[in-house]
Design brief:
- The radius of gyration is 23 Å and the shape is globular.
- It folds into two domains: 3-329, Peroxisomal Thiolase, Chain A, domain 1 (3-Layer(aba) Sandwich); 361-472, no CATH class.
- The chain contains 14 helices and 22 strands.
- It is of the alpha+beta class.
- The chain has a nine-stranded mixed beta sheet with strand order 5-4-6-7-1-8-13-12-11, sandwiched between helices. A five-stranded antiparallel beta sheet has the order 20-19-18-21-22. A three-stranded mixed beta sheet has the order 3-2-14.
- β21 (449-460) and β22 form a beta hairpin.
- It starts with a strand and ends with a strand.
Length: 474
């Protein structure tokens, strides 16, 4: 039986009240809030976070493939999935693939992963979907969009959700798009987007899927509509014959927003947090067509309850930010240059990054075989017992840690000053010097528990440099 073995999600720490956006532009409306990725986050870093949540301490070396889906990948010509795989410490023979250019990329990756596992070419495949879409300032998209990521592990063993069937349709329409010349997402007027697009395509595809598998709306416990807003989802739900009040999964629009490619998986994760064995779910995603999946929850889901953290935890752990910070983080406004040379003047070395891919991307140090002391970065001579060249690899990214000391640097270049430089001590030994992110400078204290998080450091030499930072435990 092929299906979902595990699931995970990630919601950025920061939220922006939609009323603040309206207030800035003197407009009306704006219920709820939207999730906002920090200045050092992108679709790659959030995919790493969602995948780590999905693995929940499992061995990353057991994964055979990684599919990455996004409309906002950092590179047009370079795999993002390979970056995610390196950060997660997957094997070098792992098969990586990017799905881009469509909001259905996440569900397309699920189907491709399912087919690969079913055919026997892979045993387990991690599917990650993430987006950081930008709407025009003072537009409906700016208010409705949200940032986030979701991850699913597709396999044959210990399946918590079986994939009973699927159905897809294609529809060429210029409703929502972003060309290779654009930074902002374009939308045609809402009535056309709704009536000619979503409201027409989704019900037709859902009806065809139910007919194909001889099912009715009464056969489902929940229906999960990925939609740009709750109105679209409710209209489609009614037209498909479902009762929105009892059957439609909460769209999380007031808490997170429309997370694009990641939305179907994040909504599925939210549904699975409350699902019980025997529940049948209908997953629907939209974007130049429609994907429909018929899913059934198995008894194995109860064995996963204790290890899955759940998307509600990320939604609850938040901090409000301001609209001016949002504009600064997305670099939509020019700001006064820092007293020190800005990050984009740094010249990273591609050969140096390649040589240190294990230590830099997967955060590997070493552990002395003689005295058992973990150390970072990798050393030839143990600092404790002075044994030479007798080490084994040791990964710090998933270890518990505490803040040993810190300093707030007011002068260094940062889109979120001050830069908080930290010494982090790990449980079991080892210390790392790194920056802290997702923090209130006034609340940083020595001894607080922290966790490592994969982040984007800067853009220089025409490419992005990624590494790890610490953050207060969420």
């Amino acid at each position: 039986m092929v299906g979902i073995v595990s699931y995970g999600a990630y919601v950025p720490y920061y939220r922006l009240a939609r009323s603040d956006i309206s207030k800035m532009w003197g407009s009306h409306g704006g219920r709820g809030e939207r999730a906002v990725a920090n200045f050092d986050e992108d679709s790659v870093t959030m995919s790493v976070a969602a995948a780590m949540d999905c693995l929940h301490g499992g061995n990353p070396q057991n994964i055979d493939g990684l599919y990455f889906a996004s409309t906002t990948a950092p590179y047009l010509e370079k795999q993002s999935s390979s970056i995610v795989a390196a950060a997660l410490d997957f094997r070098q023979d792992v098969f990586t693939l990017d799905f881009s250019g469509s909001l259905r990329g996440g569900t397309g990756a699920i189907r491709a992963a399912m087919d690969a596992v079913k055919s026997g070419s892979a045993s387990t495949i991690m599917v990650c979907a993430s987006d950081v879409r930008i709407g025009f300032p003072n537009s409906a998209n700016e208010k409705s969009f949200g940032d986030g990521a979701g991850a699913l592990l597709i396999g044959k063993d210990n399946v918590i959700v079986s994939i009973e069937g699927y159905y897809s349709s294609c529809n060429e329409i210029m409703d929502v798009w972003r060309s290779d010349r654009d930074r902002f997402v374009h939308s045609w007027e809402e009535r056309f987007v709704r009536d000619a697009g979503y409201k027409t395509v989704v019900p037709k595809t859902v009806s065809a899927a139910l007919e194909k598998y001889n099912l009715t709306p009464d056969d489902f416990s929940k229906v999960i509509f990925s939609a740009p807003n709750a109105r679209f989802a409710s209209l489609a739900c009614k037209k498909c014959g479902f009762d929105p009040k009892s059957k439609m999964q909460n769209l999380l629009h007031d808490a997170i927003g429309d997370t694009g490619t990641a939305l179907p998986i994040m909504l599925l994760a939210s549904a699975l947090d409350e699902a019980k064995a025997g529940d049948r779910l209908l997953l629907v995603s939209y974007g130049d067509g429609c994907d429909v999946f018929i899913l059934k929850v198995t008894e194995e889901i109860e064995n996963l309850r204790t290890s899955i953290k759940g998307i509600k935890r990320y939604i609850a752990a938040k901090r409000m930010t301001s609209y001016d910070k949002y504009l600064r983080w997305r670099q939509l406004l020019p700001i006064d240059p820092p007293a020190r040379p800005p990050a984009d003047q740094r010249r990273p070395s591609a050969p140096a990054l390649w040589r240190d891919v294990k230590g830099g991307m997967a955060l590997y140090g070493v552990k002395c075989r003689n005295c058992g002391s973990p150390q970072y970065p990798a050393q030839r001579v143990c600092y404790k017992c002075r044994t030479k060249d007798d080490f084994e690899g040791y990964r710090f990214a998933d270890k518990k840690a505490k803040l040993a000391s810190f300093s707030h640097d007011m002068l260094s270049a940062s889109l979120d000053p001050p830069t908080t430089v930290c010494a982090v001590d790990f449980e079991g030994g080892g210390r790392i010097m790194c920056d802290m992110t997702d923090r209130d400078p006034n609340e940083v204290q020595v001894g607080i528990p922290v966790e490592m998080t994969f982040r984007r450091l800067f853009y220089g030499a025409d490419f992005y440099t990624y590494w790890w930072k610490c953050r207060p435990l969420r």
